[in-house]
């Protein structure tokens, strides 16, 4: 298969996957609303770098080991769910700011870029759905005859495209026209994100243990 037809298929499939709501979207939305553009962009970059993690183990064959070792995949699922629960409890405990000064003070207390970056990286890196997506992509969509250099280009593209998508989302969510509304009502978005993160964690655990139980 030539480069461009295969690349266009991969780009299309990846676009549909990255645009669908999930843990990555929830994290970027939370950081954008709660801490502003800078934190959301750092989280987006962390998500993009984590894509390279999935690409790497798919290329070297570790992904097959993860998929064919039930306990290892289940451990990954549990770790992902626990991390989402940790983020959810922080979001659900968000309180409404009392005054405009309190809002300004809260916005100044933004997390360090490394913390936001780590949150994005861990969220995507531990996501078992992302693991399955890249395993399927490299096993089904990408031909076994595709040169390694082409596969590497595909991986780099998906990492950059993912980071660019969520950076764009970060800019949209922190646009000046909606900044005032988000500053005043952002804690409600935070709580909604907490519920969403709880639901995602529960869904991960249910799918993992449910499949093992033969559900």
Q: Could you explain the architecture of this structure?
A:
This protein has one domain (3-212). The chain is built from ten helices and no strands. The protein has helices spanning 3-19, 23-35, 37-60, 62-68, 70-92, 100-108, 113-125, 128-141, 148-173, 176-212. It is globular.
Question: Any chance you could write out the topology, listing elements then pairs?
Answer:
Elements: H1 3-19, H2 23-35, H3 37-60, H4 62-68, H5 70-92, H6 100-108, H7 113-125, H8 128-141, H9 148-173, H10 176-212
Which short descriptors sum up this protein?
215 residues; mainly alpha
Question: What can be said about this structure in brief?
Answer:
Helices cover 85% and strands 0% of the residues. It is mostly helical.
Average pLDDT across residues?
79
Number of discrete domains = 1
Q: Can you tell me the residue ranges where pLDDT is under 50 for at least 5 consecutive residues?
A: 98-103
Q: Strand tally, please?
A: 0
Share of β-strand residues: under 5%
Overall body shape? globular
